[in-house]
Amino acid sequence: xxxxxxxxxYREERLMVRRRGGRKRALGTRAPMLVPQWPNDRWxxxxxADQFIDGRRMRILAVVDDCTRECLALVPDTSISGIRVARxxxxxxxxxxxxxxxxxxxxxxxxx
Length: 112
Known about the structure:
alpha+beta
């Protein structure tokens, strides 16, 4: 039975058909990201995940300086909490200084 016939039967029986919501879209237009000119202008954070043969998951936190393309940190673990991410970022701040912005999954974070 296709969706048109099902909808017709619902209408004949005066039943309400629940409409599913559409895909959520970003509001407004996004400004293109500027290319960083100096080291510590922008850092990128990303999680990489894989799975062992026995089913356990492994995650890696990767922190990259977008100007120099230098990998500042790779943190492997089976589970990485928010506290662990904050601790690793604190260590990077001591070693490399404070970046102007941090980007994570296309979300811009400013003013550290």
